[in-house]
Amino acid sequence: MQPYIVLPLIIPLLMALTVLARFRTFRRRLALIGALANLLACIALLIITETGEVQVSQMGGHPAPFGITLVVDPLSAIMLTISSIIMFTVVIYSRTAIDANRERFAYYPLLGCLLLGINLAFLTGDLFTLYVAFEIMLMASFVLLTLGGERGQLEGGLKYVVLNIVGSTLFLIAIGLTYAVAGTLNLADLAQRLLSAPSLGITTVLAGLFLIAFGIKAAIFPLFFWLPASYHTPPIAVTALFGGLLTKVGIYSMWRVLVMVFSNELVVLQPLLLGLAMLTMITGVLGAVAQMELRRLLSFHIVSQIGYLLMGTALLTQAGLAGAVFFMVHVILAKTALFYISGIAHAAQGSYDLKKLGGMRETHPGVALLFLLAAFSLAGLPPLSGFWAKLMLIRAALEIEQYLVVGVALGVSLLTMYSMVKIWNEAFWTPPAPGRIASMLTRNERLSLLIPASVLVILIVVVGLLAEPMYRLSSQAANTVMQPSVYIESVLPESGVEE
Questions:
Q1: I need a labelling partner for 450 at 20 to 30 A (CA). Which of 85, 167, 171, 464 fits?
Q2: Is the distance from CB of 305 to CB of 250 less than 8 angstroms?
Q3: Is the CB of residue 484 less than 8 Å from the CB of residue 187?
Q4: Inter-axis angle of helices 74-97 and 443-465, to 10 degrees?
């Protein structure tokens, strides 16, 4: 047993206990300390597993596959680390972006609960605990989405929770059927049993059910409409957190369950996956191009970028999945940074409507530079992280002669650049609109908005400049999923799985 594996679960749980703190300043400090401690614990796990080592902890001393197993491999360590970075910056950003009334109604404890669900999803080694993680995330995210009780929040929250409950129900049905077929829910045990067995009709149906359930969580086509209808309604700190992380947990679950366990069935479903990937990219970017409200525009781009992640998954190659892992890191950083910058624009000029913004190139040149770097990365311009991520995906698709998806990916990149240029032209280049609201923030409030955005943009540049080490790490993570023998042997040491 490796007890340090449980730190990413214990620390968020302690963050949730800040609800007992009476004073606002004390709650903020406890939340910041908790987010920092979680970040350090996750970085330590990444360092331990970067060579491909798999760390396992059997809860309660019950051996797998009978007990709850926590597993950290390169993929889960990458996801834990990037999510802890986002949560740490969100806590800082929230000092200005979240009002005192929302803080009073357990805002920081809810962040801790949400982080607990996210970390549990990345750590768990069995399907039922993954379901529990999704439910923890759903409860915390629904309250965060509606915290404040504004009409738009309640409408968006209703759409959000209904579709996600449908996804959770399908997930639970798939779990029950999987247990009936295989007699186990442990991922390593399932992989061992199903990878060596011929693909059956029932296992293909199970893979399809998991695809729909995770597809709702990830907002793939045509199950994405709840996202742009809800993500723009809460405060921008919550939107940034949701946009950066929540849909990515759905994609991670596809990798962990579909690619690692149901790889034989994915061969049958590959044409469907590729079609869904292209449609997700196209509908998302077209929705973004049509928007003039900054948060809705960026929300549609979440959908579009999910299409690239699904593309890497659908290629069913180690190179494709490595590109998807690299793209995951890039898009989480870029998307969260752009939401932060939109919040800064709102704080400076009092609106998210592009027609009511303007002149920020002159009034906020530093923010303009941050936007350009994040936007260029999202569009895939070198030498930023987005360029290398898309290059890996396109190269992997060309290797297996999937020319149509390559053409779609390149075309969507051009439309992404168009929408980013539209934001630049309206918010930063044109003169400010009459009656613009001047920023009334104090120096400390401005810093709490600028520092998180700056940190993420710096990381975007660093990942782009250090693309080779990130490529090796992504390849290691993809190899653990595509060739799960090390994972299986670590969880089930007596399995005797051969390379």
A1: 464
A2: no
A3: no
A4: 160
Separation CA 496–CA 87 (nearest Å): 39
DSSP β-ladder status, 55-58 and 69-72: antiparallel
Question: H helices then E strands: how many in the chain?
Answer: 23, 2
Report which of 332, 333, 358 is spatially closest to residue 345, judged by C-alpha positions. 358
Burial class (CB in 10 A: 0-12, 13-18, 19+), 401: exposed
Distance CA 183, CA 24 (A): 49
- Per-residue pLDDT band for 323 (boundaries 50, 70, 90) equals very high
Which token pair is 343? 């919040």
Q: Coil, helix or strand for 126?
A: strand
CA pair distance 261, 188, nearest whole angstrom? 8
Can you tell me the distance from the alpha carbon of 52 to that of 75, in angstroms, rounded to the nearest whole number?
9
Q: In this structure, which amino acid lies at residue 60?
A: G
Over the stretch 207-228, which tens digit does the pLDDT of each residue have?
999 999 999 999 999 988 889 8
Write the secondary structure of 395-406 as one string of H (helix), E (strand) and C (coil).
HHHHHCCCHHHH
What is the full DSSP assignment across 166-225?
HHHHHHHHHHHHHHHHHS--BHHHHHHHHHTSPP-HHHHHHHHHHHHHHHHHHT-TTS-T
Cα–Cα distance measured from residue 330 to residue 324, given in angstroms and rounded to the nearest whole number: 10
The answer to whether the pTM exceeds 0.90 is yes
Nearest to 440, CA basis, from 350, 372, 376: 350
Neighbouring residues of 449: CB distance < 8 A, sequence distance ≥ 6: 93, 96, 97, 340, 343, 344, 347, 441
Per-residue model confidence as pLDDT tens digits over 387-442: 999 999 999 999 999 999 999 999 999 999 999 999 999 999 888 766 555 566 77
For residue 65, cis peptide bond before it (omega within 30 degrees of 0) = yes
Cα–Cα distance, 435 to 357 (Å, whole number) = 10
What is the Cα–Cα distance from 6 to 123, expressed in whole angstroms?
Answer: 9
Alpha carbon 426 to chain centroid, angstroms: 28
CA distance 392 to 383: 13
